[in-house]
Amino acid sequence: MSASRGDILIVDDQPANLALLSQVLTRSDYQVRTVTDGEHAIAEALERRPDCILLDINLSGMDGLRTCEVLRATPTLHDVPVLFLTAHDDLAHKLGSFRVGGSDYITKPFQLEEVMARVHHQVRLAHLERELRARNEELAKVNAELLAAARLKADLTAMLVHDLRSPLTVIGLALERPDEQALEDAREAHARLVKLTANMLELARAAHTEKQRVLEPVDLGGLLSRVGRQSQSLAAQKAVTVLVKPLAHLEVSGDEGQLERAFSNLMDNALKFTPPKGLVTVSLRTELGEGVESGLRFAAARVQDTGLGIPPEDLPFVFDPYHQASSGREQGGFGLCLAIVARIVAEHGGRIRTHSQVGVGTEFRVLLPLRATPPPG
Fold first, then answer.
1. How far is the C-alpha of 54 from the C-alpha of 288, rounded, in Å?
2. Start and end residues for every CATH 3.40.50.2300 domain found in the chain
3. CA 176 from chain center: how many Å?
4. What is the pLDDT of residues 285-298, one digit of tens each?
5. Which CATH number fits domain 7-110: 2.60.120.560, 3.40.50.2300, 2.130.10.10, 3.90.1150.10?
6. Which residues face 218 on adjacent strands?
7. Which of 34, 144, 240, 311 has the most CB atoms in a 10 Å sphere around its CB?
8. Contact 13/3 with Cβ under 8 angstroms?
């Protein structure tokens, strides 16, 4: 049995007309439904949208012209082609049918070849219009994605210019007055440039390669202690206190270098947005999984600051490398470092959450699965 060429709804209050049209269209592989009045025609079309409606003008009750007006006013049916069936061939009736939204008309008595030709034409047009709409929707989606990519590129450029300007300015000033303090400032600015370049390369490589990481036992407590010590110099320059709470020896499976990069980035971010006399706290504890994670154990590492805080409208985008933060974060957007943190944590089977309050501070909480302890013996 061949596939249906289309769904046709015939509306006529003359049983003989319904039988004849239904028989001819069914033989031509159309799926046919029939009703005898306008009210039922609308209900039937709403239940299942037809590809074409053959509609008698002279229906009892709601006539064909009024039925067509209702169809055209119905959002889901407004573009279904309507072929009027009429015994009148004068200009006034033809114009009336087009005025209410008719697509074409067929005069009675029927010429069956003409009926088939007109029906086939309208069904084909309807199918082509649907395909065109679908293509247009696809093109609109692609266009929106291209526009979004262009905006992301512009945002990234603006962010990089911002992040590069400050250290380059410091290095330029050091060249003009090469005293000991200026040289120290230049060394620190150079380190920032090196880190920014490394972050950019890390994101670029992640986007184009799938690196196989060697997972080894990592003492997360020892790693966090080391990151805390390494941040003391920058913290002292900013007059910010770094407090590393006593850390337990918790082992996770991972790439130690990548995990150290992730937590170093979290510390850099905390120090960047914490004003003088502020506090950055690092802590670590064990957490038990809940729900579908019941029975699992996690290492929960927290980096908490008393900095500017993140506005609620920016929180969903803190791990987006291209997002520019709203006004109030004077040092620009979130940069590349948090995007890299999120990627590294995800690659280690963990997750990261952010809590923040403007004017109070921000906490980043990283959960990593604890390394399974082999049974004794």
1. 67
2. 7-110
3. 48
4. 999 988 888 888 99
5. 3.40.50.2300
6. 252
7. 240
8. no
Q: What is the value of pTM for the model shown? A: 0.51
CA-to-CA distance for 100 and 46, rounded, in angstroms? 19
281 neighbors 302 (Cβ within 8 angstroms): yes
What is the Cβ-side half-sphere exposure of residue 22, based on CA atoms within 13 angstroms? 15
Is-contact 162 332, C-beta < 8 A?
yes
Compute how many other C-beta atoms are within 10 angstroms of the C-beta atom of residue 350: 21
The residues pairing with 171 across neighbouring beta strands, listed in sequence order, are none
pLDDT score recorded for residue 252: 94
H-assigned helices in 56-179: 64-72, 91-99, 112-176
Q: How far apart are CA 194 and CA 190, in angstroms?
A: 6
Q: Rounded to a whole number, what is the largest CA-CA distance in the chain?
A: 105
End-to-end C-alpha distance for the chain, whole angstroms:
70
pLDDT at 371 over 70: yes
